[in-house]
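Handout, page 2. Input:
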Amino acid sequence: MPIFSSMVRGKIYVGAIKPFFDILLAVFLTLLLVPLVLFLFLIVFIDLRRSPLFTQIRVGKDEKLFTLYKLRSMGMDGDEKTVSTIGKLLRATSLDEVPQIINVLKGDMSFIGPRPLLPEYLPYYNKDEVKRHYVKPGITGWAQVQGRNDIDWGLRMLKDVFYVDNISIGLDLKILLLTFRELLKGDKTPYKSDPTIKFSDYASKR
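Output:
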């Protein structure tokens, strides 16, 4: 019964092993990165003269809403034209995502999974795309290491569904290694894709 055994291993990994290592890694990184986070908070506050912490409602596992944390990079919420120089650097290096370790500690997110998106997109998913909510969203994921800002919504969704259908410790380790590679490379074209194209706009035209 190889298929049954594989399913059992998958459920054990997703239900117990993966959450355990998420919390373990989150605690370790929290202790390790406290000085860096405090420094970044100070830099962002000096740059924007606003609270360094940006919060937004996103959709998690089983379509449960939660508050996502990021370092603020825009002078005005939601206006890409007001992204500061510091904000562009934070995005290019993914340092703006560091506060999401709090989301991992709270159990809202995992380190690896589909990126959490806005609640307004919920009516637009097709029967396959809704699978992205079968698992916890992640700080990094299969779509992020396969193109980041260079892939369109359709391909991004296909990669999210692939991850959910094939989730395993092997795939997570591969994504983790590829994430380190992407971080070392940096995102040299953080605005190559049109930031005004929302998933709802894309989905309504297909």
